[in-house]
Each structure stands twice: as C-alpha cells, then as structure tokens.
Amino acid sequence: MSHAAAVLATPPSNPSAGGRLVTADGRPLPLTGTRLTAHAAGGLCRVLLQQRFHNPHAEPLRVTYLFPLPHDGAVSGFAFTIGGRRVVGEVDRLKAARDRFEQAILEGKTAGLLEQVRGSVFTQELGNVPPGAEVVAEITVDQRLAWLPEGAWEWRFPTAVAPRYQGAPGRVADADRLQVEVAEGGVPVRLTLSLEVADPLAEGGTLSSPTHALRLGHGGAGLTAALAAAGGAPLDRDVAIRWPVAARQVGASLQAALAAPGSRLAGRAFGLLTLVPPRPEAVRAVARDLIVLLDTSGSMSGQPLDMARQVVAALVESLGDEDRLELIEFSDAPRRWKRGPGAATARARQEALAWLAGLRAGGCTEMGQALLEALAPLREDAQRQVILVTDGQISFEDEIMRTLLHRLPPASRLHAVAVGDAVNRSLTGPAARAGRGVEVVIGLDEPSEVAAARLLARTVAPVVTGLTLSGPALRAGVAHAPDLFAGAPALLPVELDPDGGALTVRGRTAGGEFTWTVQVAAAEPATRAGALSALYAREQVEALELERTIASDAKAVDRQVEALGLQFQISTRLTSWVAISGEVTVDPRDPTRHEVMPQALPHGLSVVGLGLRACAPASLVHPPLASLSFAAPSPTTRPLEADEEELGLRGPSRSVLRDSPPRHRSPSAGFRERPPAAAPSGTAAPFTLHARLVLRRGRRLTFEVVVPDGGLAWDAGAVAGLLTALGLVQAVVVSAATTAPGHLAAGTLARLTLTLEPQPGDPAVLRIILASGLALDVEPRPSAP
Predict the structure, then answer these.
(1) Largest CA distance in the chain
(2) Residues 6+ apart with CB under 8 A from 512
(3) What angle, 0 to 180 degrees and rounded to 10, lies between the N-to-C axes of helices 425-434 and 529-548?
C-alpha cells in the first residue's frame, strides 16, 4: 500500500476553547443556502427551516453540520428532498436512529440524521449525496413567542453557534460533539426568510427588527416580512422581529385543539394557557437586594461587554437608598466591587458606575464560584434579585443548574440577561427557569436604554407567585409553574380533557390569594393541534432535564424523556430524527467525501476573545475517532505480553482498534508488537490510517477510513490479512459493505466492514476494545480435535 501522512484539522492549542479556526482552501462549501418560512399568531410560531446542500465532488458526499435552533422550540418535523423525491423522517431512539442511518449508508441509500446536542444546538448529517446532486433538508420547529413589556410579540431565531468554554479535560463528557469549527474569513452562505403575522396589530403598529432591515408586505392572513438585503443576510446573528398588539386583558385565556384522528395522539387534547398579570403601574414597590454577576471572560470582549456595562449601569441607577447592591465580575475567578452588600446611596451608585467603566474582558468563563457567592441569603424582608449578565458560552450547563437548584434561597430570584447575537440559550433559558426568574435577550444592535427598561419592568418584583393549575379540564400541566412578573405574560402548554370543563389557576399576590377560572369547551381538531402537542411535550422534557441535574435516579428520568420524544415525535437528548430514501442512490462500494460545514464568526465576537487565534487554521476534514495501526514488524521483534499498565487501559486487548490518546489515559498507550509475520505486499514501513467506527452489529464492525494526503492504494482484503497475520484478530471482509479495491484520492473516505472471528486457541472470550470505550465480547470457535 502506498501512503502519506493524513491531512487532519489541527487541534487547538487551547482545547478548552471549544472550537478551532478552519479554512476551506477556496473550495465550495456543501451548504449553499438557508431559508426560514414562518407563520405567527396568538403567541405561537411554526417555522420551516430549509437548508440547501450541494455535492460538488466526483464521489458521494457525507456532510456534518452543527447549527443552532431555538432553545425552547419543539423540533416536530424532519424531511429532505432529493431528485424531486421528498423523504419524510421519523423519531427513533438515539442509538437506533444512528444505526439505521449508518446501515442506510452501507446500502447505498441517501439518509439524513438530526441529533440534539444541547437544547439549542443540533447536528445534522446527510449521507450518500450523489455527485452533482442537491439535497434540501427541512426542519419544522414550533415556538412560543416572547412578550415584550412595551406591548409586542417577538419572534427570535438563531443562525450561529459560538465556541463554548470546555474547562479542564474530562469536565464536559460530550466535548467533542460541541466543537465548533469557525471559518476564518467567514462563509458565503446567506439567509432568506418569509414571516407571516396573523395577529391584529395595535393602531399604527407595524413589524420591525433590531437585527435586520425588513421589506414589509401583505399576505392572506396579515402582514408579511422578508429581509431587505438583496441575496439575503449572513448567518452570524439571531433574527428578531417584533410587532405591537392591543393590550392584553389581565387574567387567563386558552387555545385548545384535539389531536388529528389516526395520529399517535388521537383522542387527546392539548392547549396553550396564557396568563396575563397586572400591569406594572399596579405593582407595589418593595426594597431590593440586587446582586449583579457580570461575565467578563474573553468571549465578552468588545461590543458584548460594552452592552452589558450599559445595561448594568441602568440597573444601578434604578436603585434607591432603601435598596442594597453587590457587583461581582467573573472570568477565571470572581472579583467583587466591595467585600459585601451595601446601601445603594447616591455616592455608592456613582462608585459602582466608575468600577463598571474600568472593567476589561479576558480569560475563561468559570461561572460556578461567582454564583455560589451570590446565593447567600440576606434580609428576609427584601426581594433578593440576582442578575446574571452573560453570553453563556460554556458547555457545562448542568453544573450551573445543579448549583441553582440546591443553593437558591426560596425568597430569591435569578434572572438571566443574555447579551449578544449568538448566546448560549441552553444556559440562560434553563438558568432563569431554575432561578424562578425571567430571561431577557439583548442583541448588540439594540438601544441599551430600551433593553434596560425591559429588564427593569420584569424584575422589580414578582406579581404572582405559587401558581397552581387544577380542575376537571386539566389532564397534565407544567411541573413547576413560573412566577408572573409585571409586563410578562406566561404561556403554559397543558394537556386537557377532550370533553372540556373548568380550569382553575391559583396563586399568591401582595394582597393575598387569587383565583382565575377558564371554562374549556370540548376540544375540536384544528390546524394548531400539532404545534400545541409538540410544545406540551417539549415543556415536559425541559422540566425533566432540569430535574435530572439533582435526581438520585438519572436513568429513570432518561426513560421518561425518551418516552416523550417517541410518543410525541420530537427531538430530545435521547431521541433523533432519521430519514432514509427508499431507493439506492449511489454505489455503496464507491469511496466517499466527508465534509464538516463550518460556522461564520458570530457578530460582535473575536477569534482572540474566543481563544482561537493561537490555533493554526486547519483543513475541513472530519477528525478521527479511532486509529487503525498497521505496522510491518521487524524479524527481530520479540513477543511481548501486554498488561494493563502498558496499555493504559482497564484490561488486556488484542485489537489494533484504539482511541486517539484520551486525555485521561497515558498518551503513550498503545499495543505491543506480536511475533514476526509477513506484511502485505508493498508495505515497506509502519504507518497509521485514521478511521472512525460508524456501526457495530454483533461481530460486524464498519469503519470509515480517512485517505491520507497523496492518496492510497486501497485493498481491504490486504488490511484484513494483515490483522490476521499479526495474530491480532481473524477478520473477514464483508465486500458488499466495503469500498472496492483501487486508488483512492486524498481526502476521501474508504469504508471497511469486518466480521471478527477469534482464532482457535484464544482465551474463552476475546475482548475487543472499541474506540468508543465499548467492549465487544466474541466467543471463540471450538478448537479442532
């Protein structure tokens, strides 16, 4: 076999940065366009995200794309179109969906897989895109809209993922899945959109956006909006569109619908309960203990920190002499303005503003210790408000949720202010939920005074606490109903009795207990039934995920999450969408290309602030998950027995399949050579091919092998022969699921499918250690008599 060194993406010199710079080397990228088509009314929005991919290569293409979706949205549909044929997906268990996808690739079918990495981050894979072909992936998302205190609905949709701080090695279990590849120089892909709003607008009101220039029009149901920029907008920031509506009536209202006959949920009814608290002017002011946790890590450099300072300054200036103030900034470690809380006198406020003005960004995002310092209870007669101001760019969100759920005093509230245009709302949204507060999202191009006023309106004090739902119309509701804050209606998904009845809301206000009752009519089928059921299921999943962070039996919670994903057909951490063409589209024995679609650098962020500048730009090649090591041993090699210490593993292994050196193992861990054996013809020196295990079914293992720079004379039979000759394992090539022999071009992928059979005389059980850490036990064949 001829060979050359593999061309791989250079790992970052700072692995905790959560990303790396890459370069496309002038090659066309697989993603050629993105379009959003949305319909909004009554606090709900259904969005169709279309991503257009093209294969410019002479070989079939496999694409991997990490991208954002709304953190509180329900991913309720997935399909793709190829050659005029639309292939509709279904939700399956995480591993089952992955196995079905990989099996389809082995069979030469085009397939798509959509996996949730975080509530706001997903990975999409498309496999076996034929040469020159185009595939359009379709993702349906149901969202609740956000209510703005100025009396408007806001629709917000993310388009960019920023690298997230990973911390020490091993801190984030799935760190490799969250690695963000940032294309130096950006990506040429553009976003187009079409939004239709069916709400009646307030007199003189219209649609507007703080993020993009719009072109307005009229549609069948109301006003429409599209991007004004010719050719669309870059994928580097959220899309936010707002529209003012008539003042909402204080109290409770309900939208309800019966699931469609013949569906998985036939006979069940779902609804969206809207609770509108008293208006801000009706709220009695109380003394506040305000503590601000301000993120000054490297990712906040520049515009994000400037915006954060302005918002915090407005909060400080809103305080009076009866209030108390604490300020803590944090990056590598927390740093206080003063040793403890103090009265917010005029002089203290001026000193606080001067301290804020001198802050500079840099370092990593160690949020946990700062949060612990903020959660110590103070005066019982005051409302303790903790304001977390951050872009949320960390990958260990569970640590923060666990701290909040264990340490937040009952009378306190934590509010999350998400600053920036690609914030991690998998942190800020759940943090506000765990903190019984509100989340406020502030884009970099918004006026700071408007953003600060919006935050103040929602954090003066909760208007209604201790919400409970009951009544004969209620089948199931939210596990933990939120407090109601002035100017912020709550939208609560519920399951209803199809026959209707009374639905009662109870809570506490400063004036005592109160009750609202809604008479629910018998449910009827409606076009919104799918969205209502999906949002109900998503709400249940989010509550369970929060519960899991402190649960004594996490596996029991996992089973509930998985069951909801399957029953309601939505994406979760444990369920994925998979779609497979019915016909063969490529020759499965052809070599393929595998490209990872990179991200644009989010608006307002810098590669220096994100810790990426020290990394050498890298080519767009999928990183290896395992190694196949082939060596031509020397005739003088002495047989050596491998032991646990030498291997850096828990037990003996006789396989050449091993991890790229994990951080928690010895970097020199490897496999000792066996007795001399003849190597395949043409092999002159030791070399390594990088591969990843993609499918395991019993004794059959399928690998994708990265063809190194300079190409490779591929012969899968010789590979299997070498394994057997070295006495490592007897392997039989499955030719129908293996790349055919021939010369393979650099950068392509060869597929190798082996059936492993232990040799006579091996131990009773031969343990093969796989790249994932999974062990495969294969019973040996009986020895010949």
Answers:
(1) 96
(2) none
(3) 80
- C-alpha dist (Å) from residue 243 to 40, 151, 153, 438, 605: 11, 9, 6, 21, 28
Question: Token match 């290896």: residue?
Answer: 624
- The rounded distance, in Å, linking the Cα atoms of 382 and 379 is 6
Question: CB-hemisphere CA count at 13 Å for 286?
Answer: 19
205-219, 380-394, 450-464, 733-747 — most confident range: 205-219
Q: What is the DSSP letter of 165?
A: B
108 to each of 90, 249, 302, 591, 728, how far by Cα in Å?
Answer: 20, 58, 49, 11, 31
By CB atoms closer than 10 A (0-12, 13-18, 19+), residue 690 is buried
Q: In sequence order, what E strands does 521-660 have? A: 575-584, 592-597, 626-630, 657-658
- Classify residue 349 by its DSSP letter: H
Q: Does the pLDDT of residue 705 top 60, yes or no?
A: yes
Beta carbons within 10 angstroms of residue 403's beta carbon: 20
What phi and psi, each to the nearest 5 degrees, are found at residue 310? -65, -40
CA proximity to 527, closest of 258, 188, 744: 258
Residue 351 CB contacts under 8 Å (≥ 6 apart), including other chains:
none
Contact 444, 307 (CB under 8 A): yes
Residue 675, classed as helix, strand or coil, is coil
Strands (E), 401-450: 412-419, 439-442
Q: Can you tell me the distance from the alpha carbon of 441 to that of 89, in angstroms, rounded to the nearest whole number?
A: 33
pTM for this model (two decimals) = 0.87
Yes or no: say if 191 and 624 are a contact pair by the CB < 8 Å rule.
no
User: Please, are residues 654 and 766 in contact by the beta-carbon 8 Å criterion?
Assistant: yes
Give me the amino acid identity at 477.
G
Question: Which residues sit opposite 317 in a β-bridge?
Answer: none
Distances in Å between the Cα of 128 and the Cα atoms of 53, 259, 473, 622 are: 12, 36, 49, 16
Q: Calculate mean pLDDT across residues 422-426.
A: 95
**pLDDT tens readout for residues 54-94:** 999 999 999 999 999 999 899 999 999 999 999 999 999 99
Query: Rounded distance, CA 259 to CA 270, Å?
Result: 8
**Partners of residue 243 on adjacent β-strands:** 153
Smallest CA-to-CA distance from 130 within 584, 595, 751 is with 584
Closest alpha carbon to 246 in 516, 42, 484, 519? 42
Report which of 342, 288, 350 is spatially closest to residue 319, judged by C-alpha positions: 288
**What are the backbone dihedrals phi and psi of residue 747, each rounded to the nearest 5 degrees, phi first?**
90, -10
**Res. 778: pLDDT tops 60:** no
Residue ranges with strand state E in 585-672: 592-597, 626-630, 657-658
Helix (H) and strand (E) counts in the chain: 11, 45
Q: Which amino acid, 722?
A: L
Which 3 state secondary structure label does DSSP give 695?
Answer: strand
**Tally of CB atoms within 10 A around 355:** 15
- pLDDT of 550 reads 93
Other C-beta atoms closer than 10 Å to the C-beta of 567 total: 14
Q: What would the pLDDT profile of 678-700 be if each residue is shown by its tens digit?
A: 334 444 444 456 667 788 887 78
pLDDT band at residue 721 under the 50/70/90 scheme: low
Predicted pLDDT at 149: 83
